[in-house]
Design a protein that fits this description.
The protein is of the alpha+beta class. The chain folds into 2 domains: 26 residues; 96 residues, OB fold (Dihydrolipoamide Acetyltransferase, E2P) (Beta Barrel), CATH 2.40.50. The protein has 3 helices and 7 strands, in the order H-E-E-E-E-H-E-E-E-H. A hairpin with a 6-residue loop joins strand 3 and strand 4. The termini are far apart.
Length: 152
């Protein structure tokens, strides 16, 4: 083979390789969207969204919470596996209903519901802390007259 054929082969091979990498990276990119825009067409893709925590469920093997977009009724369940929970200890005090969070993960379907599965703790960030409406029992017992007639 002469140098001209080798050069032509190398250029063609490089163009095919770069094109393949571009197509692959375009398919695996993370889309930023609102909770209300997420639908079944996006199953299997990576999504980044933000919302307000409306419900939380802690289990020994996983952590589930629902996020809602302000002004919309729909919600999205976010799933964190055990290995993600272990890195969540410092954020767990801030993970209460009303906190605004940004999450990134893969959309999956489980028992007919869409879930966003978080693979690492870096894909969960708290954008705005919630104000807790918790009143300690000791305060209620010290001043029962203040809370008379209230459901506490």
């Amino acid at each position: 083979m002469n140098k001209q054929k080798i050069l032509t082969f190398a250029v063609i091979f490089s163009i095919v390789g770069i094109s393949t990498l571009y197509i692959f990276s375009a398919q695996n990119s993370t889309r930023k969207m609102n909770v209300s825009e997420i639908d079944e067409k996006l199953l299997g893709s990576r999504v980044r969204t933000e919302g307000v925590i409306s419900d939380i469920s802690w289990f020994s093997y996983m952590f589930l919470f629902e996020i809602k977009e302000e002004g919309h009724e729909g919600s999205l369940t976010v799933v964190c596996e055990r290995d993600v929970i272990e890195g969540l200890e410092e954020k767990s005090n801030e993970m209460i209903p009303g906190a605004k969070v940004m999450v990134e993960g893969k959309l999956e379907e489980y028992e007919g519901d869409m879930n966003l599965r978080i693979d690492s703790i870096g894909e969960l960030s708290i954008q705005e802390r919630a104000i807790s409406n918790f009143t300690p029992l000791s305060e209620i017992l010290e001043n029962p007259g203040w809370y008379e007639g209230m459901k506490v």
